[in-house]
Amino acid sequence: MTNSKTSQLGRPGTFFASAAPLYEYWKMLPDDKPRRALRAEQLGPLLLPHVSLLRVLGQAEDLRYDLICQEMKMIAPRLIPGSLGSDPLQLNPDDRGVLDLLMGAALKQSPSAHLANFKSYEGHRRSVFTLILPLGLNAQAVSSNDLIVSVWQRPNKLENDQEVFEDMTDAFLTYCDTHTES
Predict the structure, then answer these.
(1) How many Cα atoms within 13 Å fall on the side-chain side of residue 174?
(2) Strands 112-119 and 125-135: what pairing?
């Protein structure tokens, strides 16, 4: 469920600053953003704990988690390499929030940034800032081939289990445009 009540979620604060170097790294990749161009040593120890890699399957029919970062393992310990984006739908067919968020970035083949509050399958309230960056761009294809999905946990500002996803893409990109080093 999408809700744009920024006052409920608070402000992104330092999360924009934390994620901006990953966005700058992504921008420096070759134009088609091939997955093979990623280099862990270039990401460094501040970004690696936040970077997961997902493969887009078929004609954007599903997603597969190939590399699950330390931060995502804390948020969703059920995930293992090979997990599918559609796996939660087996538990609750109406629970498309995260899958739709990820698939949207793959289909648009453009960056996506969100603040999200949700209750995990383990029963924990979670609040995260996520930056999704497509890899394997191809204007002739239905979607990108892969996704970098990065997450930063934030203090949960909601008192209840309400699921809230707020699109922060424009604000994040504006932040990056005005805070990049020359």
Answers:
(1) 4
(2) antiparallel
Element (DSSP H or E) covering residue 62: strand 62-67
Q: How far is it between the farthest Cα atoms of the chain?
A: 48
As beta bridge partners, residue 54 has: 65, 147
Cα torsion 57, 97, 116, 87: sign: negative
Share of the chain above pLDDT 90, in %: 59
Q: Cβ distance 4 to 168 under 8 Å? A: no
Terminus-to-terminus CA distance in the chain, angstroms? 39
Is residue 143 within 8 A of residue 56, CB to CB? The reply is: yes
Six-digit token string for 118: 């949700």
Determine how many CB atoms are found less than 10 A away from the CB of residue 182.
2
Read off the pLDDT of residues 109-166 as tens digits, 9 standing for 90 and up: 999 999 888 777 777 788 889 999 999 999 899 999 999 999 998 877 666 667 778 8
* 23 to 29, 53, 60, 129: CA distances (angstroms): 10, 15, 23, 14
Is pLDDT above 50 for 1?
A: no
- The amino acid occupying position 118 is F
